[in-house]
Amino acid sequence: MPSPANNWSAESWARHEREFPRLAARYRELYARGAHLGRGYKDELRARVVRIRERYGLASGAIEYRPELWEGEEQGELFPLQ
């Protein structure tokens, strides 16, 4: 039975097990102890992000927002109207 920490009713779990049977066992395993990430997973994810930042020269934390640097540049249209 899933943990009440994730606020899913037994009926919700049963419906998802019927609709997504291949995922049900993994979901039960993931949410058996609650809906929050475990310490090991958080540490692994943090290490991955650090490696990606280092590889691509990305800053960590907040960046200074300076729209004046983009003056005169127009943003392109994602979906131009025809």
What key phrases describe this protein's structure?
82 residues; mainly alpha
Give the proportion of residues in helices.
Answer: 40-55%
Straight-line distance between termini: 54 Å
Taken as a percent bin, the fraction of beta residues is: under 5%
Number of E-type strands:
0
| Rg over C-alpha atoms, rounded to the nearest angstrom | 22 Å
Give the overall silhouette: flat
Structure summary:
This protein has 3 helices and no strands. The chain is an all-alpha fold and about 80 residues long.
Provide a descriptive summary of the structure in words.
By secondary structure, the protein is mostly helical. Helix content is 48%, strand content 0%. The protein is built from 3 helices and no strands.
Please describe the topology of this protein.
Elements: H1 10-19, H2 21-31, H3 39-56
Helix pairs in contact: 1-2
